[in-house]
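INTERNAL AUDIT FORM
Audit reference: QA-55
Scope: verify that the stored structure record matches its stored sequence.
Auditor: D.O.
Record contents follow.
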Amino acid sequence: MSAYQSGSQPVQRVGVIGGGQLAWMMAGAAKKLGVQLVVQTPHDTDPAVAIAADAILAAVADANATGELATRCEVITFENEFVDLEALAQLEAQGIRFRPRLTTLVPLLDKYHQRSYLRDLGLPTPEFVALEHQIDDTALEQLGFPLVLKARRHGYDGQGTFIIHDQAELEDIWQKLDRSPVLLEAFVPFERELAVIAARGTSGEVAVYPVVETQQENQVCRRVLAPADIPESVQAEAEAIARTLLNSLQAIGVFGIELFLTADGKVLVNEIAPRTHNSGHFSLDACATSQFEQHLRAVCGLALGNPSLSSDGAVMVNLLGYEQSHSDYLEKRQQIEKIPQAHVHWYGKTESRPGRKLGHVTVLLSAQTAPREQALAIAQEVEAIWYQR
């Protein structure tokens, strides 16, 4: 059996390009579904290597390694977007199965192309322009200051994203980026940031998770509140956006969709992640079907599971590095685990550095503690333990 074979046999092995915590968190779902994971990842210390049935130690953009990966599994999926689509297309032409398909990824990996695709679909986004050769004063007048500058490829967890306050700062930051093509977009004075996880199966069915509120600091997600305290109309609009997008892309698998909610109730699409997403980690403990099981169900050609909450609500807090160290922070994790209904997920990384995602904790909420204020109080309790020096 290999990814070259495309018959109707049940999938027994799934190849995953990338071996970080997202692949690692697929382990429980893989066991439940009777599926083995084979990962392509650079280092034997990467989290998913410990849970994989097999591993190929190579860069995620190494298409030759992906060709070898294809001989060890029936279908290949992605943990991240840092891939060489042109090289992978040669493999796909040979019959190797990728889910999502490469044609699904093409309009998404470059942020300017992604914005253009959303606009052409009629989905609401902030105003944007491409900055490629020289600064266009007319475009700057259209966007105004402050504005947001984003690297078009390979930005994540706030990397490659800058808030620009004037033209001098724009010139300076762009020069530091070697004047490479970037995306400029209008700064949105949002009321809240939202996200929605959605999955599409091989049959075309779509499952949408409850919309959540995400809270960022230094453009890195710190906490997620599920469900978001929003009107039903906003939930419905976010779900409609997800369905429109996934059906248009003919997507297979889980996608994370980041949204802005403005003060006047408008929903704008911020970014699309064609994979499992940090905003959906709460689903491991708080939903009937986690986003990781859902993703494997989709790529294996199985029926999608129930995305509904199995508790009244949940708050997820990322455990971010705040120092340079080699520590497993066991004592702090044990303190957090004493919080009622707390579920700590530690990714097994051996090195901590500021901003690095080392783990997360999800605390399930009862009807008595579901209001947003209580969720935030629990998040603050977790963070007081975690960040105490």
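Auditor finding: record pair retrieved intact. The first strand starts at residue 13 and ends at 17.
Action required: none
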